[in-house]
Structures
1.
Amino acid sequence: MEKTLQSGWFDIFRKKLIAEFYLDVRKVKNYQPDISPIVYCCLQHRRVTPKPRNVILSKKLQESSWATNTEWMSLQESIKKGDDINGYMSKNINDWQAIDYLLYTCNISHFHLYKNKKGGVRESLVFGVFTKEFFYALDIGDHNDLYKADYLVSIASSNWPDLDIFRVKEVAGKTEAEFNPKEFKRTANDPNLQYNMIAPTCFIDHNGQRKELDNHQNTALISFELNGIKIGKIPFKVYCAYINEIKYLEELDVRLYERYGAKKMSLEIDAKKKNYSVEIHLQRSKKLNYKIPKTFITCSLYY
């Protein structure tokens, strides 16, 4: 039995990549039709979903000269309104294989204070934590601060000790662990060294105690191979979404074949209704709708 729903699903993401990111996936290295959903989710993973959020400033930001900076005040309003701020991200935001090590390990996002048509520009970077409802702005620094995970996490912990922003190791008293920014930088910038940290960084909490983060805070990385071809490292969440949906579509394919004897089917996705729209090509075509699963992560609802 031909896996017709899967092939339609691959093509949907090929078209989404062209429409949303102006990327012809057929030109990527080691292209296979199967890779389109993976490329799409890798790009989405590092982006910020546009939606209104409250902006909360750390005490350090409130008391700094940045507090009255025109560009920063304007950017805050954009975040509050739910504007798309991905244009302020690094130019690597459109490189699907780029790794944002600070985000993946510590769940801290960064974006430029200024932008041009190609993306974020100049040295000034905003650091903070995005949740569904809030943006916790930690500090405004430069590219050197990308490797000061301990400093940034300490700001968050001391300002919002009661919020569940990070998973912290439950250890009695103080830890003697030390954070090495040079090693963090070396690991972050070398794809051959990037790995999943058991404790991404130590930090000073609101009580002045040295603590450690418990494992990666955003996503693990996984070395991925597709149809015998090595793809490289991708976020583990992307891998799970891909495998989950592949399995679901395989099972749906089988059910529809057994019920209707359909050898040819086409698939569309209704993004607004969050449905699969399946057309079964028989003597008289039949259209069926199925809800995209929400009980597990999928590429079709990846954001």
2.
Amino acid sequence: MTKETLLMQYQSECLSALKSVANIHKPFEKAFMDTMKLFMAIPDRINFLQLGRYGCFSEQTYRNLFEHETFDWFAFNGSIISKHLTGKRKAIAIWKSWASVSLTSTTMNA
């Protein structure tokens, strides 16, 4: 498979999961799909400045989109996982850097 076909497959799976999760408006869908494409293309850490530099929208558009829009990431990831994992039991891992400071300080000291 070429890189282009893999990227197209990734985008189609993200889009189908996005549409199955919630009733979203078109501007969010366009910016979300562009962001998913950029997550595959930009190495290392990604910030809004890089999204604005390499994406189709401005930095402020990405920033506003993810700060003001409520999106159910759990359901989105669950939709993608359910297509590819067939067992009854599934596990979800949470990256520690995304946990709040108070959460990490209480769990680490316990």
3.
Amino acid sequence: MSSLLRWLRRSVRTLPAVTGEAGRRVPARPKELSVSQLSGLVQKNTTTGRGANGRPQWLAENAGSVRRVVLFAQNFKSGEFLRCNAVLFGSAHDWMFSVDVTLADFDELPDMSVQDSLLLLRDFLLNIHVLPLDDDLSRSAPPPLSDDAESRRAADL
């Protein structure tokens, strides 16, 4: 067992909720779902024109290489929508992208155990790759931060 995993097991007993916008508590437990369930959430967002609709083109092309999907709530996007990070595990690579999910849809998904959450955190820290935006989404993305803005932001953390 790696030293990182041993440290995580000693340090974390439960996953607390995170306070988001307007003091609302963002669910802390990750959710496990199938590629088909994720595709359904992405399709809902694409159909309704919600902000973070995942990577529909990439998911359609690569669904066969995904062996596991985990969803993390990041913050409340607005009203009853959570901005989530979808982490997709493949046989050769792992990937991540943002997707908006209704609170009702998120609550219906099964919680991940604390043990599995810690293992996932370890894998995330060591191996995860962030996917670039699909071509049609990158045209509408905000410009990257300047070096000076990134320096100020890093100093704030």
4.
Amino acid sequence: MHDRTMSSDDLCFDFGLTGLGGSFHGDWVLFAADQWDHITQWYGPVGADSDRRRLLLGDDVRRLVESSLSGAELNALWRLTDSNVLDGSPEIGGRERDWLERTLAPAAGTAEPHHGGAGAATAGTGSCALGTGGPETDSGVPSPMYEHRLLADDVKGLIDRLDPQQDAVGVTLPQARDALTRCAEKVCSEIAFRFLLRGFEAFGSRVSRDLYGRLERVGERFGYGPHVVDRLHYLGSE
């Protein structure tokens, strides 16, 4: 999340592309005509909440679509949003970038060329990739992009803590670790961290009290509200 106008109150629960992926619970097909109808419902009625969802999703999509990640790596990240075999997020393999772009206008039929989505101009357009430049401050305070680069090593260290107790749907552990690491290095550590949280669920990984504390502290530094990380409580172990 790269918009300084957002507070932790705006980010109480998962958001952006990971929030969308997590919304595809196993029973979504009972309430939507197809995946695009579901996404339209996920946005909700026109208003501030819908605008916020579009801004946050648009920021994720722009950074991923314009990144150097391969289609297979994008697909691996997306597959982590299925927490178990009963979930049913759409298959996007082979059309990853086109599908991601279409989520920004699900009723449009065919995606238009992507230029950042609604609100992108205010969402922060600098690079979070390691080894890139970009402003260290924004109006006198550390910029989100700079802070995210500083947290990349923390996120990469947490990727190694995945401890599978079940098979994930459509992605192996090596594929997931490679895609998460590349995302943290080449796209943004904050986006990678949200996919990592989904990965703990996808693999049923055990989360010790110490590990949970580390996840919580990183989430706080990213500016999250209380329920982005705490949904992993059920994976807790001593």
